[in-house]
Each structure stands twice: as structure tokens, then as C-alpha cells.
UniProtKB/TrEMBL annotation:
Coiled coil: none annotated. It comes from Micavibrio aeruginosavorus. Residues 280-339 form the Multidrug resistance protein MdtA-like C-terminal permuted SH3 domain. This is Efflux transporter periplasmic adaptor subunit. Residues 1-18 form the signal peptide. InterPro entries: Beta-barrel_RND_2, BSH_CzcB-like, MdtA-like_C, RND_pump_MFP. Belongs to the membrane fusion protein (MFP) (TC 8.A.1) family.
Length: 383
């Protein structure tokens, strides 16, 4: 009997405790539901969309060439009598680089000059006599032909004599010397090279799909192994034909070379900046990828408290730290950059900070700590 009474008492107490506990949890749930929307808002960090300059970058491999470049050779077979340059020397246009044996040609030239002078005198004498009627017009014509023939012979000898000296056709730097005094030069003999390296030509190929936005004057940046610097230039010419095999077009850029650091034949990596434009950009941390689509959470401050709207965007060029947006975002729109995983579309949010343009998360948190520290110091001073 006592066991039954004890069991009844325990059951009554359990029911009482259960009833009180139920009322406790029910009361907590009601309290949570009665909280204001601001109290249930998700903390986020936002950043404003801004406009910036963008370009599409195309990389290619190119080969450097001198602005002007020739291989100096002889047009006659003769012995070298003088070499007037050294390896790697800079020369001016018209400088005599090599002289060859030309004694016989000089003697013939002197002889032809004498014949030309005599023919000129005979022509003048015949003209005077023709005026007085002492000679016929046929004699005058003969003297004219003799003078013209002598003059042509003189020009031919002068031209032949020029073949016995090698002169620089333009300013530049010569290469290695391949001959010595006394050597027999032949038309196939290479004397040296001459390059105008004050300006360099960089030839490279780009896919033909870039032709619509490729134009002369487009800036480029070029680098080469062994050089710890970039060389700037611009597109000077675009080939008139597309290669039928590679479907690429040859492009030539001009790079100034005032210090003569660059040499012809150097292999360079080219970065071509095409299609320059101004576009809207946001921090890349705001992008929410979902399959092939991209979304952002846009802050709607027209409501109180503010809420976020999930909006699909179209991205363009990506850079370190930010990304170009081509559709659905305008300058000044505020997007969530921290808290994208917790914030829900249409749900209220609390903006804890606004990230500045170009500011990294580390810099943002450091700035917030400093502002908080300064605020605490100020309150302490007021006390």
C-alpha cells in the first residue's frame, strides 16, 4: 500500500515539473519571437561599387629586331687595305668602314676626268664657231655627243670607285669584325653587321579574334629572362593578312631603347592591353558563385532595418582584389563583402563596417580596432 502511495506522489511531482518546464521553454520561444527585427539582424560588412579603368590583357611571345639592320658585304673582289672600325663600335651615317685596293680605278678616273675636260673645251669651241658659220651643225652635234659620252664614262668610274669603299648607310652599332687588312674580299664575304638599336621592333602574333579591338597605338609591356624590369612600348603596325594555318595576325610594336639594353633576337613575353574602358567594379569577396552564375547581396537601405537582395550579375575582367561588373550593378550600390554565408535574401542585416576601396580584410579589421581603441581612450579621458 505504501509503495502505491509513493508512486502516486512521484507521478504528481513529475507532472508538476514537466508542466513548469514546458511553460519555461514556451516562454523562451515567445520571447525570441517577440524580439525586434533589429535584434535578429545578421551583422555584415559592406563596400560600395565604384568605377575604374579596365583593359583586356593578351599575352604573347615575340622576337626583338633592330629598327634598321643590315649585313655588310662587298660587291667586288679586291684586297682590303684599311679597316676603320672595331667590334661593337658606334658609327655615323657616311663613315668609311672598309677600304679596298683601288689604285687602278683611281688612275682610270683621273684619265676620264681629263677626257671629259677636253671634250667640254671642244664643245665650247664648236659652239663659238657655229655661231659665225665656220662649222656645220653636224660638227657641233658630234662634239656634244663626245662630251656627253665622256661625262657618262666619268660617272661610271666614280660609281665603280665607290664600290671599293664600304660606308655606313645609317647611324648604328657594328657587330663583330670578320676580316683583317690584306684579306681578299668577295661578294659573298660578310664584313660585319650594322644595327640601329635606338628603337627596337618587337614582332609577335595574336589570335585573330582580337582584331576588332586591336589597333595601332595600343600600349604593351614586355619582359625578358635576365631583366628585372618591364619595357613599355606601343603597337606600331598590324599585318594586313591573317595566317591561314594558325588563324593569327602578326603585330609589330615599337620599344624605345635609349640605354641600348635590348639586343636584336631577344625573346620577350608581351602583355598587350586592349579595349581600354571605364566600368563598374566591386570587391571580389562579394561574388557568390553558383554553378556558372554569379550573385551578390545588395544592401537595401530603404527599409528599416536594412535588408539584402540577392542579385545575379555578369562579371567581366578579374583583377587581384576586385572584379568588373558589366550588368545589374551601378556605381554607389553597396554589396556585402563579409557575412555572405550568414545573410539571407530579404532578411534584415546590421552594417558593422563599410570597407573602403582597395582595403583588404586585414586592413579593415586593423582600422576598426584602432577606431575602437581611440573611442575607448576618449571615453576614459572624459571620465
Amino acid at each position: 500500500m505504501k509503495k502505491y502511495i509513493a508512486a502516486a506522489l512521484m507521478f504528481s511531482c513529475g507532472m508538476a515539473v514537466s508542466s513548469d518546464t514546458g511553460r519555461f521553454f514556451t516562454g523562451n520561444a515567445l520571447a525570441q519571437e517577440q524580439k525586434s527585427p533589429a535584434a535578429r539582424a545578421t551583422p555584415v560588412v559592406v563596400a560600395a561599387a565604384y568605377k575604374d579603368n579596365f583593359v583586356d590583357k593578351v599575352e604573347a611571345i615575340g622576337t626583338l629586331r633592330a629598327n634598321e639592320s643590315i649585313t655588310l658585304t662587298s660587291t667586288v673582289t679586291e684586297t682590303v687595305t684599311a679597316v676603320n672600325f672595331t667590334d661593337g663600335q658606334r658609327v655615323q651615317k657616311g663613315d668609311i668602314l672598309v677600304e679596298m685596293t683601288s689604285g687602278e680605278e683611281k688612275a682610270l678616273l683621273d684619265q676620264q676626268k681629263a677626257l671629259t675636260n677636253e671634250a667640254s673645251k671642244q664643245l665650247e669651241r664648236a659652239r663659238g664657231l657655229a655661231k659665225s658659220g665656220a662649222v656645220s651643225s653636224a660638227v657641233l652635234d658630234e662634239r656634244q655627243r663626245e662630251y656627253t659620252s665622256a661625262k657618262a664614262g666619268l660617272a661610271a668610274l666614280q660609281s665603280r670607285l665607290e664600290d671599293y669603299i664600304i660606308v655606313a648607310p645609317f647611324d648604328g652599332v657594328v657587330g663583330l669584325r670578320n676580316l683583317s687588312v690584306g684579306a681578299l674580299l668577295q661578294p659573298s664575304s660578310v664584313i660585319t653587321t650594322l644595327d640601329d638599336d635606338t628603337v627596337m621592333k618587337l614582332d609577335f602574333s595574336v589570335p585573330s579574334i582580337f582584331l576588332p579591338t586591336l589597333q595601332t597605338g595600343t600600349s604593351i609591356k614586355a619582359t625578358a629572362a635576365g631583366f628585372n624590369e618591364e619595357f613599355n612600348g606601343e603597337v606600331a603596325a598590324i599585318n594586313s593578312q591573317v595566317d591561314e594555318v594558325t588563324r593569327s595576325v602578326a603585330v609589330r610594336a615599337i620599344i624605345p631603347n635609349p640605354d641600348a639594353k635590348l639586343k636584336p633576337g631577344l625573346l620577350m613575353t608581351v602583355e598587350l592591353a586592349r579595349n581600354p574602358r571605364e566600368a563598374v567594379a566591386i570587391s571580389e569577396s562579394a561574388i557568390i558563385p553558383e554553378g556558372r552564375k554569379h550573385f551578390v547581396l545588395v544592401l537595401d537601405e530603404s527599409q528599416n532595418p536594412p535588408v539584402v537582395e540577392k542579385r545575379e550579375v555578369v562579371i567581366g575582367t578579374r583583377r587581384q582584389g576586385d572584379v568588373e561588373i558589366t550588368q545589374n550593378i551601378k556605381e554607389g550600390d553597396k554589396v556585402v563583402v563579409q557575412g555572405t554565408m550568414m545573410a539571407k535574401p530579404g532578411a534584415p542585416v546590421t552594417v558593422t563596417a563599410e570597407q573602403k576601396r582597395g582595403e583588404t580584410p586585414e586592413q579593415l579589421f586593423k582600422r576598426l580596432r584602432e577606431e575602437k581603441s581611440q573611442g575607448g581612450d576618449k571615453k576614459g579621458g572624459d571620465k
